[in-house]
């Protein structure tokens, strides 16, 4: 006979209280948005988990205050404990595919109740709607937005509606910062917590009925379900869209534009007529424009999130004739600058950039650039911010910011200097703000991918993809076979506009000097509205 240890119950109470406090802190501060309880056997919200913990604490306190004298554990009690543990493990394993108990209101087959969302811009009881529960602190949510923007441009696809549990002013800030081009509305926080178990959560509502539901990062099967759900709305119907779809590759010799040619890639999952099939087969152009007015640029490119190359914007810049490696060495050689060094030793050099920052005199760096040949080991990049301090800021006297595009008074921290040898690479990523890059010296090859392909790009950390466009490993990254890559070469004297959300990988073909700008004169708040 074994006596029940007296310390177990108070220790359990202490542990549950500590975990409950941690649960409350993590959910109230936005650090945790999914309870993650019970291995998925039962799906509950963090608030429901708190109530359960309080119930467990109360039961333990009752047991502690009302002990059973001379209690010992019988054989049948050990057997019962073992049965419970085995059953719980079995349920946990089974719930990896489907929750055993699901108390969420957003179950397939349920009706969407009008009382859930009183400020909806749509009548959700009629028509087709793609409703997404979002969070300000959710990285996956932000990665969905380019995809949702593209869906919203298609007249024959369901309307997109985003939902947040914040006030209207915060929603407008979220839409502006994330460049969301679909309606986003607020829902009561308590109701919101019962509706969504994790973020992002998306449901497809057809005539008031929830027909599909997805949670988390966009997986391949998500796109399959989208295709299957929307096939009837697409096949045989008009291809008219509210905005153009952009996906191009190659260079047309006759029209002086980058043009999409038929791809040799034939993905198995998207061989039928669908939105994705039409997008893959569509021939679209990235234009090279000259004499482009600020109004024309804003209306046809900036506001439409469409890239363009401008061939004559910087032809009058003194920098175009002055800036060479020798000029930088002769005029700024003694200036201390920061560069990225030893990048060849780290496959994740861009993500681990803090480990590669190094101080060096510019003259010594010029010698490295000129003498090392084609190499990616040393590079002066935007994140070195050399124009913000020191003598290199005087280089801005050699450029003329076009006032109809760029705001000179708002250039601090928004103009960046790039300088490196042939072979320097910026890996595949997207920027969260639109940018222009002016090519001053040498050439750079740009490989650009539209936001619609984000689900195929293995976006693993922040804004970065794991895929190398030059040498894609299709065994490791099979979805990349669905992607079309735009490839253009930026010549000296040209400037490229890259909208936010557009993926790009850049390689210097020669020793290269470039400037990038994010200080546009256009108000993104007004654009979003």
Write a structural description.
The protein has 3 domains: 8-102, no CATH class; 114-234, Glutaredoxin (3-Layer(aba) Sandwich); 314-528, Sandwich (Jelly Rolls). The protein has 529 residues and is α+β, with helices and mostly antiparallel strands. Strands 10-11-22-17-24-15-14 form a 7-stranded mixed sheet. It contains 13 helices and 24 strands. The protein starts with 7 loop residues before the first helix and ends with a helix. It has helices at 8-28, 46-65, 75-94, 139-152, 168-178, 189-195, 220-234, 275-281, 294-302, 319-322, 325-332, 362-371, 524-528; strands at residues 42-43, 101-102, 128-133, 159-164, 184-186, 201-206, 209-215, 258-259, 285-286, 288-289, 308-310, 336-340, 357-361, 379-380, 415-420, 425-429, 435-441, 444-449, 459-461, 464-465, 486-490, 495-498, 503-508, 512-517. It is globular and about 95 Å long. Residues 229-275 and 525-529 have low confidence and may be disordered. 33% of the residues are buried. A hairpin with a 2-residue loop joins strand 19 and strand 20. The longest helix has 21 residues, at 8-28. 29% of the residues lie in helices and 19% in strands. Helix 1 packs antiparallel against helix 2 (46-65).
């Amino acid at each position: 006979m074994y006596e029940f240890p007296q310390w177990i119950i108070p220790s359990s109470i202490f542990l549950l209280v500590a975990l409950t406090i941690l649960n409350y802190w993590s959910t109230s501060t936005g650090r945790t948005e999914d309870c993650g309880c019970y291995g998925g056997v039962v799906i509950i919200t963090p608030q429901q988990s708190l109530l359960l913990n309080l119930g467990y604490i109360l039961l333990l306190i009752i047991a502690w205050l009302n002990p059973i004298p001379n209690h010992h554990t019988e054989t049948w009690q050990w057997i019962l404990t073992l049965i419970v543990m085995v059953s719980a493990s079995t349920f946990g394993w089974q719930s990896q595919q489907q929750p055993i108990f699901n108390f969420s209101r957003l179950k397939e087959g349920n009706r969407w109740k009008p009382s859930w969302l009183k400020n909806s811009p749509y009548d959700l009881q009629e028509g087709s709607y793609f409703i997404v529960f979002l969070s300000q602190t959710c990285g996956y949510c932000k990665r969905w937005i380019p995809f949702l923007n593209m869906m919203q441009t298609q007249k024959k696809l369901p309307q997109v509606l985003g939902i947040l549990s914040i006030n209207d002013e915060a929603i407008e800030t979220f839409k502006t910062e994330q460049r969301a081009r679909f309606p986003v509305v607020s829902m009561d926080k308590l109701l919101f917590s019962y509706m969504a178990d994790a973020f992002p959560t998306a449901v497809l509502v057809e005539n008031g009925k929830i027909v599909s539901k997805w949670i988390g990062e966009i997986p391949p099967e998500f796109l399959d379900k989208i295709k299957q759900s929307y096939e009837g709305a697409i096949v045989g119907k008009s291809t008219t869209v509210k905005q153009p779809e952009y996906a191009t590759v190659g260079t047309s010799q006759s029209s002086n534009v980058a043009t999409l040619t038929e791809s040799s890639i034939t993905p198995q999952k998207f061989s039928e007529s669908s939105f994705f099939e039409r997008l893959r087969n569509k021939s679209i152009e990235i234009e090279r424009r000259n004499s482009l007015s600020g109004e024309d640029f804003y209306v046809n490119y900036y506001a439409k999130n469409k890239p363009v190359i401008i061939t004559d914007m910087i032809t009058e810049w003194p920098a175009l004739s002055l800036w060479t490696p020798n000029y930088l060495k002769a005029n700024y050689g003694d200036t201390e600058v920061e560069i990225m060094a030893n990048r060849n030793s780290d496959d994740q050099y861009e993500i681990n950039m803090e480990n590669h920052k190094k101080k060096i005199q510019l003259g010594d760096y010029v010698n490295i650039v000129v003498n090392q040949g084609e190499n990616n080991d040393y590079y002066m990049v935007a994140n070195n911010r050399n124009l913000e301090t020191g003598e290199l800021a005087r280089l801005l006297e050699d450029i003329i910011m076009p006032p109809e595009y760029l705001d000179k008074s708002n250039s601090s921290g928004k103009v960046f200097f790039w300088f490196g040898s042939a072979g320097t690479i910026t890996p595949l990523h997207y920027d969260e703000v639109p940018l222009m890059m002016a090519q001053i010296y040498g050439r750079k090859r740009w490989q650009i991918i539209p936001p619609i392909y984000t689900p195929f790009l293995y976006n693993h950390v922040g804004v970065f993809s794991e895929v190398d466009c030059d040498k894609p490993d299709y065994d490791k990254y099979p979805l990349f076979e669905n992607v079309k890559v735009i490839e253009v070469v930026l010549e000296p004297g040209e400037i490229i506009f890259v909208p936010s959300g557009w993926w790009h990988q850049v390689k210097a073909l020669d020793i290269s000097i470039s400037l990038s700008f994010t200080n546009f004169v256009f108000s993104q708040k007004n654009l979003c509205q």
